[in-house]
Amino acid sequence: MSSFAEPATHAGADAAQAASASASAASFAVLLGKLDYLNAAEVEQVRQAYRLADQAHLGQMRKNGDPYITHPIAVAAQCAEWKLDAQALMAALMHDVIEDCGVTKADLTERFGITVADLVDGLTKLEKLEFDSREQNQAESFRKMLLAMAKDVRVILVKLADRTHNMRTMSDMPRSKWKRISSETLEIYAPIAHRLGLNFTYRELQDLSFRFLHPWRYEVLSKALSKSRTRRKDLIARVQGEVEAVFRQHGMQVRIMGREKTLYSVYRKMDSKHLSFSQVTDIYGFRIIVPELLDSYTGLGILHQLYKPVPGKFRDYVAIPKLNGYQSLHTTLIGPFGTNIEFQLRTHAMDVVAESGVAAHWLYKANEPGSETSERLGTQWLQSLLDIQQETRDAAEFWDHVKIDLFPDAVYVFTPKSKILSLPRGATALDFAYAIHSDVGNSAVGAVVNGEQRPLRTELNNGDVVEIVTGDHAEPNPAWLSFAKTGRARSKLRHHLKTVAQEKAVELGERMLLQALRSEGFAQLPAEAGEYRATWDKLLRFAGSKSRAELLSDIGMGKRIASMIGKKLAVLLTETGVKPDTLLISRERFGGDHEDQLAQGSVSLDGSEGASVQYASCCRPIPGDRIIGYLGQGEGLVVHVEDCPNGKRLLARDRERFLPVEWAEEAVRTFDSDVMVTVTNGKGVLARVASAIAQAEADILHVHMGDDPAQATIDIRFTLSVRDRQHLAAVLRNLRRTASVVRAQRYKPGAG
């Protein structure tokens, strides 16, 4: 039980619960008072949603001590201000029940229907949104993404109401959270509100964000604005009186409202134009609501006769609406005492859209059901979101303004067939591969991003078109974990590596144990079942392993010494009456030269071994080299070239950990090898050398040219991908025939 729900006495708990219930009921009563636009059946549905939410949040408190249910009620109340329908209000009341209270989507579907359940589920997933790039093609891509995401605009509206209430109560939150939440609101949610035409919410979110991002600046500017308001009170009254009088003279019935720039817009203007507060002259303005559309143009002429217009400060958003549907005439005039004053002229319908944006669809639906205006607005706004790919004129501006994601830190990328995939920001082509299918990820060898060949570690951006290149024998590399970002990719990668490594380690361990057992005179491992089951049980207890597979895996990974386990197994077999073969002992331990020992019980390598076998970077063995295998502690088998100095040191120090290894007849992949090429310095020499390598069908993985390119001759070290020693020899021959090449030879880092 959480601390807030742990009462000192039952009486105290009952009193607290009663007070909480009373506060909740009072809040819900306020909400009910705003639902006069719904019918009785819809109000009852909202009431049922409230009861479920109230029960689900029982005992939960907000930071200020109020019952938690007051938050969903406040969110629903904001949605009611926008006259959203009953389903949206129900989703608002229950928007936290899936995430915080253990209520399932299936529960909501059963009680309230699939639409409400989908809304609540969408709100649960809608946690963070960001914006980023400004390129035209990404703008178009983003619009398609929005179409895929915004199946129901009510999800975003409820989320905005939720964020607005959270910002209003931000002072109850720890100061440590103010910056993060306010920045997110200012950069993401406020632009979304603007995009949706919710101008009142847009301005409120901006001011609240500014208040908690820069408390001192907010306070100073607030006081300055208050003083200015007092000083200019007479000016504002005079302008309003003169405007009302001139419209009366022309027989026009208008509604005039004073307006003031928000603190944040004043601050932004001061900051961007390096102005002092006294230099910001258009803080005050007036909104004039006219009866008909043509009256707005008539009113503009009347105002221009009253005061002189400021050149270049007229905007006609009636003839050319903003992208979010906003319509109004804007003009800035020089009023009394040379003060600049902005006027906005619009009809009542335009004013509703200007303040409520996409929510105006429901406002008109509530006030004038079936009206032409309702249908026009509904079509206009829903098409704006759900068919946004049709809007192509201002794509770049739209993208510059806001980018909406429905998943945390998401980037959206496309498959070659234009399917959209959501990935976390920072995701790579490898994450994309695993998002397509685990088999695609496991066999990936590269990617084509926007038509260009790129490595799997390439970070993806919004709008990228990605195609994964796969290989028949390709397998995941443990190094991929360093750049796999998604949980899906990392879990699939780990599972595959663990499974394959386990299989390979068991296979290697079995061969190593068999080799050790042959040295003790036993030709084969005993069967796990039947008469030797007790023998294996004793061996597992001796080794501390849970199963035969685990023991063999530990041997293969170097966690157990094969010879020690082999000796113990030989003793146990002897105890059961099985006698060792002395001829086998002498042949395994003492007979034959190095070649014979290598051939008997040696591990065959073809490059498909996975994590259980590593090829040492100090000497980079390739097929055709004479090799030795060192069983590192927990590393699996590390393969060195036979004459590698590091391998020789390990052999002298810990011979028991070495294992005979040999190359298979045919390798299944290429191997890395270093080549040192000495060239005479000159123009285009690197291109000629690279061309010679490419002609020999070798891939360049890395190039190092040293620190002093001004010398007459320079050494260039290449890391190449080759099939075997013969292939490497062909590459070297090609290089030696190339102009400007003085010398070309294989380079082994550990040798020098």
Task: Please provide a brief summary of the model.
The chain is of the alpha+beta class.
Structure, described:
This protein is an alpha+beta fold. The chain has 5 domains: 210 residues, Hypothetical protein af1432 (Orthogonal Bundle); 155 residues, Beta Polymerase, domain 2; 76 residues, Ubiquitin-like (UB roll) (Roll), CATH 3.10.20.30; 170 residues, no CATH class; 81 residues, 2-Layer Sandwich (Alpha-Beta Plaits), CATH 3.30.70.260. It has a 5-stranded mixed sheet with strand order 1-2-5-4-3. Helix 3 packs antiparallel against helix 4 and helix 29 runs antiparallel to helix 30.
What layout of secondary structure does this protein have?
Blueprint: H1 10-32, H2 40-56, H3 70-81, H4 86-93, H5 97-101, H6 105-112, H7 114-125, H8 136-149, H9 153-168, H10 178-195, H11 199-213, H12 215-231, H13 233-249, E1 255-260, H14 263-273, E2 284-290, H15 293-306, E3 308-316, E4 329-334, E5 340-347, H16 348-356, H17 360-367, H18 372-386, H19 395-401, E6 410-414, E7 420-424, H20 429-436, H21 438-442, E8 444-449, E9 452-454, E10 466-470, H22 487-519, H23 533-543, H24 548-556, H25 562-575, H26 582-589, H27 594-599, E11 603-605, E12 613-615, E13 627-632, E14 636-641, H28 645-653, E15 658-659, E16 661-663, E17 671-680, H29 685-695, E18 699-704, E19 713-722, H30 725-736, E20 741-747
Parallel strand pairs: 2-5, 11-16, 12-14
Antiparallel strand pairs: 1-2, 3-4, 4-5, 6-7, 8-9, 8-10, 13-14, 13-15, 17-19, 17-20, 18-19
